[in-house]
Amino acid sequence: MLTKRQKENVFKDYGVHEGDTGSAEVQVALFTKEIDSLTKHLKTNPKDNSSRRGLLRMVSKRKKFLVHLEETNKRSYNKVTKKLGLKK
């Protein structure tokens, strides 16, 4: 789980405008940070199946946001995927 400060940094780095917390770019970045955190957790706790299920749901939601972003704003999609280090 991300702290309030970490979320604020994501809002600042990926937000489209001041106070942006819900755009697709911000949502993808938040999901990516949480996915990284859960992946580290699952490496040390391989039997935690409820967290694994949550991870799979987050990956699915992030993929939906990425598809939407790619269809609506290709430039922003390229910028976000490059900045986060995601595969296209």
Give the gist of this structure:
With 88 residues, the chain is an all-alpha fold.
CATH homologous superfamily designation: S15/NS1, RNA-binding
CATH architectural type: Orthogonal Bundle
Strand content: under 5%
Q: Number of DSSP strands?
A: 0
Q: Spans with pLDDT under 50 lasting ≥5 residues?
A: none
Give a written overview of the molecule.
The protein is mainly alpha-helical. It has a single domain, classed as Orthogonal Bundle (Helix Hairpins). The protein is built from four helices and no strands. Helix 2 packs antiparallel against helix 3, helix 2 packs parallel to helix 4 and helix 3 packs antiparallel against helix 4. 19% of the residues are buried.
For this entry, give a set of tags.
88 residues, mainly alpha, Helix Hairpins, 4 helices, 0% strand
